[in-house]
Amino acid sequence: MEAGCCLREALTPAVQAYYAKTHMKGKVYLVGIGTGNPADLTPRAKDTLLAAGIIIGHEASLKSVAGLLGGKRVVGGTLSPVERSSIAVDFAEEGETVAIISSGDPGVYAIAATFFNYLKENNIAISVEIVAGITTASSAAALLGSPLGNDFAVISLADQASRWQATRCRIEQAVSGDFVIVLYNPLGKIGPGRLEELLGILNLFRQPATPVGLVRGAGCEKEYVKVVRLCELKPSDIDNDTLVIVGNSETYVYDGWMVTPRAYQPGLGY
């Protein structure tokens, strides 16, 4: 046993990581639970949660899948994404099957990026599987109509996860390119400053009557859906749980639905 340990210590970090992965019995699943409404949980996500012995997540997310947690070890509270990643890896190293749950999809502004970064920084290789969930953008778009019917850009204003200079550059390129804009985390943690700058940029390139969709709590009892014109939009209308979709130059409203058309042309492959 001691000789084996000494041998592994003499190996390169990459080989050590491969050895750890191939000899580890446990596994970590990163599971998207969509809106949190049980009706929006995919069959694959449900089966994964039923099979896992340990479930990790925010209290709100855990509450939405409470019916699947019977007999399992549940780790909740106010853990940061890095802390959730660390705990999951520790359990997996003990041979456990672990699921970290995330609203929406785990790969979209959620746990997956943090988890893989944690593995990279700590030179850890384990068995991981991502279970896709219905994204917040898709859920919101379905309630609004078809605002994502053509090219769109997804941008987060989360101030703790991105540098504003880089985010602002992406915003300017997306807006000037006439992309529909899907906006996550519109207020961040430090207030409406970034949102106000974004609205200033939008007003330079978009017409005042451009449709803007606001969705909060998609799939929940207190679901809120509203379509306004860009000239009517104020930061005070938006909180950090609101997903905002700003139309492009062709987006219109018909019978209450927000629509971005796709102009199919005969003879061009369709």
What does this structure look like?
This protein has 270 residues and is an alpha/beta fold. The protein has two domains: 2-134, Tetrapyrrole methylase, N-terminal domain (Cobalt-precorrin-4 Transmethylase, domain 1); 137-259, 2-Layer Sandwich (Methyltransferase, Cobalt-precorrin-4 Transmethylase, Domain 2), CATH 3.30.950.10. Helices cover 35% and strands 21% of the residues. It is built from nine helices and 13 strands. The protein has a five-stranded parallel sheet with strand order 3-2-4-1-5. The chain has a five-stranded mixed sheet with strand order 7-8-11-9-10, with helices on both faces. It has a three-stranded mixed sheet with strand order 6-13-12. Strand 12 and strand 13 form a beta hairpin. Helix 5 crosses helix 6 and helix 8 (164-176) packs parallel to helix 9 (193-205). The protein starts with a helix and ends in an 11-residue tail after the last strand. Residues 1-8 have low confidence and may be disordered.
